[in-house]
Amino acid sequence: MIDLETPRRFAPLVAQANQVATEVFRPISRKYDLAEHEYPKELDMLAALIDGMSAGGDGAGGAGAAGVRRKADGDGSGGNRNGSNLSTVLSVIELCWGDVGLLLTMPRQGLGNSAIASVADDEQLERFAGKWAAMAITEPEAGSDSAAIRTTAVLDGDEYVLNGEKIYVTSGERAELVVVWATLDRSAGRAAIKSFVVERSNPGLKLDRLEHKLGIRASDTAAFRLEDCRVPKENLLGSPEVDTKQGFGGVMQTFDNTRPLVAAMAVGVTRACLEETRARLAEAGVEIDYARPGTAGSAAVDRFLAMEADYEAARLLTLQAAWMADNAKPNSLQASMAKAKAGRTGVDVALGCVELCGSLGLGESELLEKWARDAKILDLFEGTQQIQLLIVARQLLGKTSAELR
User: Does pTM top 0.85 for this prediction?
Assistant: First the structure.
């Protein structure tokens, strides 16, 4: 059974992550929010430190690149294992309490790294070790519906030739590798969708533009065109076979790991907003008294308590999804529930805190207005709020994607 307390062996990790958030992320947070597309050089030393910890056998993992290999993390026998998924979620919460955009631009901690760690074979793991990998899924006509991908991959001798367009690629410009989702056969539907590791220096992978965004401005978001992009067939992740019975569960497996990570990002931002608002309310003489019913206090206290309750629900769902992955339990439902709840809660709480803090919540002198902008993406990427609720409904009702759209 899951223990709702932070495991003692992870306490040093959580403390270190909080120290990084406090002493590194927070002080430069506004700087790189204003200097959009400028690379935060301060992160290089931090990334090297994380690499050293991983190479030294520290089981804590990094900021999100651990992947999910359930056979290695647990056997589903009913034991209670607190492994890399839970430790990574706990560290992500602390780091995003500091700054989401800076976490997303941490070298060698991209979503592509998580995909490689999850499904690559041993030879690929060794070949791509130490490289920063972005993930390219979304297309102009394939957003929430990943199965609608039109980018094609055609085998030509010992290489696949990729053609298509990818947008909203997080860290796409800065990464060394890009994990590209493409279809081997459009007529075969979902089953033909595979992921390919493409070198960022590949001449067939052309940068179109860098997006100007509402939030997470420290992180670069790229749009690419793939024009006769030739990739060695050894760079295909997973099996090249098109199995219509299996669907594209292989490439989708990554989401069971990354959705709790995005939920953890939202939990971190939410906590930052609540702590800042609590301090501002205290300065204004408004006391949060848990011994009194919310309705017996002021409207501000009532609103704060309701937001805090939503935060606790999102946090526990996130920990549950990560713990299930560590213990070899199917967590697709819980991952989507955590992502849906935490994403929505992050947005609602951030805007609610801006409202409670009045003018202090709107100005650039404080970070609340930045957190309100940053929070929105956490309700969108890795599957929008609506898509998560659709996944949850399908699983609870036992419906297929064709039966419930």
Answer: yes
